[in-house]
Amino acid sequence: MKPQNDPRRLHLSSFAQAGGQLLGDERLAHFERLIAETQGVGAETRVHYCAQGEMRLGGDGANQVWLRLTAHAMLALTCQRCLGPAEVEVEFARDFRFVATEDQAAVEDELCEEDVLVISRAFNLLELIEDELLMALPIAPMHDTCPVPVQLQAADDDFDLGEEEKPNPFAVLQQLKRNGPH
Length: 182
Ligand SMILES: [Zn+2]
Description:
Elements: H1 12-17, E1 21-27, H2 32-37, E2 46-57, E3 63-78, E4 85-99, H3 102-111, E5 115-118, H4 125-136, H5 154-165, H6 169-179
Parallel strand pairs: 4-5
Antiparallel strand pairs: 1-2, 2-3, 3-4
The protein binds zinc ion.
């Protein structure tokens, strides 16, 4: 592997100038924050990614460093209906533009459609992939059809009881009227 093509230490400008492409996969076990989302399930699952570097001419006539990044993985997330593990495909495809400084990135990220990041000679691509996959996680993962019939959760039962115990204000009013001093 050419040194500038190490996904953990990517030399971004060389990669873009060469029109480099990096196609790979990495064990889920290497992504600590992602595997926390699967409760440690699927350490051997592969996270597949494809990074394409390119130089594009900016509006000001200067060359810009761009990266097109896609990644996907099947993750065993917790089904929010039956609480069992549900295999969910998580993926993203995004374009990133790289600028020289943190300040420039902050300003331009607000103004532009693409994501603007700070350029680096030892860019950790895997970290960016993990950030993006975490953001692409479904808010409430669920089986299409749960493998087990879903029982009412204990918490729901308590909730219902709580509702019943609370006297209905109109019923109280009725009672007051009936027992009133007439
Ligand atoms: Zn389910």
